[in-house]
Amino acid sequence: LGPRFLAGGDYNAEHTMWGSRLCNPRGRNLLQTINNNNFQCLSTGEPTYWPTDPQKVPDLLDFFVTKGVSQTYTKIESSLDLSSDHSPLIVTISSSPIIVEPPPRLSSKFTNWNLFRKTVNECLTLKVPLKTEEDIEEAVELFNNTIQTCAWQASPNPPMEAVNQINYPLHIKKKIAEKRRLRRIWQNSRNRQDKTNFNRAAQDLKRILFRFNNDRFNTFTSNLSPSEDTNYSLWKITKPLVQPRVPVPP
């Protein structure tokens, strides 16, 4: 299939690695092939097979096997438009990283609880008749809408945080790749010598990363300055340390 491919379908191979309920021999063999060839599996984690027999339980049998395709640029979802007993899967491949939006929340660490209480007291109406089922349903809906609206008004959008990604040099990246390769070998063989090789590579990488991070921190702190030439970098880095922490109610 070449160095880069995406192959999907009904593999009829069950394994918890891609979201199935159980593991069968075909799933174990496929997982071993994926690990030995440095492949990746891409699935929704949800059932894709819906048996007509009520005695059978839905399970995940459809997924993708990929190589050379970063999952940061892919998005997979199920399609429920067809009437087949297998849910079709739709994979979107983007030219840029796909940002997954977090689920909406009523509150956050930036919520102004004093404003929330004030807004609730102003908007909530307690003089509501509760004589019929319709009155109760309308009162519950009004209460929920009031709580949601007040919580969203008191919770500003959090500021975007810059991702501080470390660009490791080439020799460290090779050490990381070597440690991952030895870990896969040990996980497949469970051999004592393979475990020793993996531990030795992990300890070696740990020492190299410690020296690299220590030198990086020393370089960073030595360049801090309270002057305008460095845009007051010393004050900016110490400002969060002296600010009081605001308690977040449960």
UniProtKB/TrEMBL annotation:
UniProt cross-references to InterPro entries, sorted A to Z? Endo/exonu/phosph_ase_sf (IPR036691), Endo/exonuclease/phosphatase (IPR005135)
Q: Which residues cross the membrane?
A: none
Endonuclease/exonuclease/phosphatase domain span: 5-89
Q: List the Gene Ontology MF annotations in alphabetical order.
A: catalytic activity
Note the superkingdom of the native organism.
Eukaryota
Q: Can you name this protein?
A: Endonuclease/exonuclease/phosphatase domain-containing protein
